[in-house]
Write a structure and sequence with these properties.
alpha/beta; Rossmann fold; CbiD-like; 4 domains; 6-stranded parallel sheet; 36% helix; globular
Length: 594
């Protein structure tokens, strides 16, 4: 259904993104030297011409081609474009990130132009970092002048150089540990030539080394891509295009965080203020540098202010803010810098620990940074930024905000800018925020439980602790204990129901069902360690739920059985809390504590 063309860093990333779906796809490389790790991808090798690619796409009913090949693979790009037009298959180009073109580099339109410029400048000793495939393209130069090529340390590279007539003694190799600067110092070239290969191709490092040594750098500009390609610059953008073009390839769609929506709305508002034109769409960046475009729901322009709204699409994540309006008003200010103000439905901070001053609007640090970067790129003066979420006060009652000391509304959050449905990262980040607040309010002990039920039973043991000291770990026991260690908690209590306890005792620090089921052989081992009769061990094979153990284990063995489970749990958890003391409490269905 999806064909990925790679052999590059971007190709490997594209495979990773497609692999997340758990469905079959195809990944093609010209050679078989690149190691591709994939659970669901079928790796095919060998260059495909237009006829071969057309036949392949028809045979496998390809609905999308992802072109993640090298930016200078012009012939392949042209082949992909032709196949796309013939079969009406969309093409997503997974493009590299490129630094801005600066005047201190000599830019060449192609290799013929580079030779002309090198000859004109009288360069006699050239270091070529353009790769073995460009030896033929620069032949008319190195036939008359000294030239050294750096190539991959493979016999194939040497054979290609010799076939072109190039002296193999003038080859140097990647993989020796020699940096670009060390190579340039050793070779002492009159100039260096490279390709505009982007960040993943090491272009900035080559440019920096040449500049530091005062060596002229000639760069061959990347060729233009065929028209019609849909360009993305990262894994989140690729996934969203796959979701759009091949519906159902992923079980769940990704979405945007409130922080991303606020960033888009803020940029749209400032653009409207500066241009005097209402915005209908806005292009903005998320923290990893990827760019996206979101529609603007509403845009209003005043004398010294403008306001824009974006509707949040959380994808298929069960987010209470999905579909809400994120509204940002940007106004000119006499104060320098960016100042965040609390609007309707956005919370106010009343407790320390989440990285914001008490009294400030609950616009978290990463969204603040995103908004600030986007706005200061457009305007250098002072700005007041008011973020609002109509109806946010009601939505906040369904979130962790009251427990975190955030009142009157929701938080503008999101460290990635992207919402991944049922994301482990998002859940663990929420745990971290709660533990940080517990630390900030001075809780002497952290009490972690899987949910409200187990918390209710354990809470009675610590009536004097503040409510912020009680945190739900869900399934992420290991992550939560590690956070407690990182933040310096010396006393931690963990409540466990039997289902998670037997998994943890067997070493599963993430107890989600996707990570595995209860290990009945290990449960039988613990039963034997506890002195249970052999008939109990045989019965364990028949259980389907761990809570059946409460009726299966004889009363006279239950205390020892519980101690055994807790001992094994300590074996896996204690190393995570190296500086503190962990108390583990096993809870029965009736609320008895062991």
């Amino acid at each position: 259904m999806i064909l990925i063309l790679g052999g590059t860093t971007e190709g490997r990333m594209a495979v990773k993104v497609a692999d997340e779906a758990g469905r079959r796809f195809w990944y093609s490389t010209r050679g078989d030297l690149q190691q591709v790790e994939s659970h669901n991808g079928v790796h095919v090798t060998g260059a495909m011409d237009a006829d071969a690619m057309t036949a392949f796409c028809r045979e496998h009913q390809i609905k999308l081609i992802v072109d993640a090949a090298h930016p200078f693979a012009s012939r392949l790009h042209a082949t992909v474009s032709g196949v796309s037009n013939t079969l009406n298959i969309p093409v997503v180009r997974y493009e590299r990130t490129y630094p801005d073109r600066t005047d201190d580099i000599i830019w060449c339109t192609d290799y013929a132009d580079a030779i002309t410029l090198l000859e004109k400048a009288g360069i006699e000793n050239l270091l070529a970092l353009t790769g073995v495939q460009t030896i033929s393209a620069l032949k008319t130069y190195w036939e008359r002048h000294n030239c050294i090529f750096r190539v991959l340390d493979r016999q194939e590279s040497v054979d290609l150089a010799v076939k072109a007539g190039f002296n193999p003694d003038n080859l140097v190799y990647y993989g020796t540990g020699e940096t670009d600067m060390e190579l340039m110092r050793r070779v002492k070239p009159g100039a260096v030539i490279t390709k505009e290969s982007g960040l993943s191709g090491g272009f900035p490092e080559k440019a920096a080394a040449a500049k530091a040594l005062g060596i002229p750098l000639y760069a061959v500009m990347r060729p233009a891509l065929p028209q019609g390609f849909i360009t993305v610059t990262g894994q989140h953008g690729l996934r969203k295009e796959i979701e759009r073009i091949v519906p159902g390839f992923y079980d769940l769609r990704t979405g945007f965080t409130t922080g991303a929506c606020a960033t888009a709305a803020a940029k749209a508002a400032l653009t409207a203020l500066l241009t005097g034109e209402e915005q209908v769409g806005v292009k903005f960046s998320i923290p990893d540098g990827e760019t996206f475009t979101l529609p603007v729901e509403e845009c209003r322009i005043g004398r010294d202010w403008a306001q824009a709204s974006v509707i949040k699409d959380a994808g298929d994540d069960p987010d209470v803010t999905n579909g809400c309006t994120v509204q940002v008003k940007v106004a000119l200010s006499n104060r320098p810098g960016i100042h965040f103000l609390q609007g309707e439905g956005v919370g106010r901070v009343t407790l320390p620990g989440i990285g914001l001053p008490i009294g400030d609007p609950a616009v978290n640090p990463v969204p603040r940074r995103m908004i600030t970067e986007q706005l200061t790129a457009l305007y250098e003066g002072g700005l007041d930024v008011t973020v609002s979420v109509p109806g946010g006060a009601e939505l906040a009652q369904k979130t962790f905000n009251p427990k975190l000391g955030i009142v009157d509304g929701i938080s503008i959050i999101g460290t990635l800018g992207i919402v991944r449905p049922f994301s482990m990262e998002a859940f663990v980040e929420a745990i971290r925020r709660e533990v940080e607040v517990a630390k900030a309010v001075g809780a002497p002990r952290l009490v972690i439980n899987s949910g409200a039920r187990s918390e209710r039973f354990v809470k009675a043991l610590y009536p004097d602790l503040p409510p912020q000291a009680f945190v739900h770990y869900g399934n992420y026991i290991g992550e939560t204990i590690s956070i407690a260690q990182e933040l310096g908690f010396m006393e931690v209590t963990m409540g466990l129901m039997i289902g998670k306890a037997v998994k943890l005792a067997a070493g599963m620090l993430d107890t989600h069902s996707r990570e595995g089921v209860m290990d009945k052989d290990f449960i039988k081992q613990m039963a034997q360690e506890s002195g249970c009769p052999q008939t109990v061990c045989r019965e364990i094979d028949r259980i389907t739920l761990a809570r059946e153990l409460w009726t299966l284990i004889p009363k006279q063995n239950q205390q020892e059985f519980c101690k055994t489970i807790i001992r094994h749990c300590h074996t896996h958890c204690d190393p995570l809390l190296k500086s503190g003391s962990l108390k583990i409490i096993l809870i029965s269905e009736e609320g008895n504590l062991w």
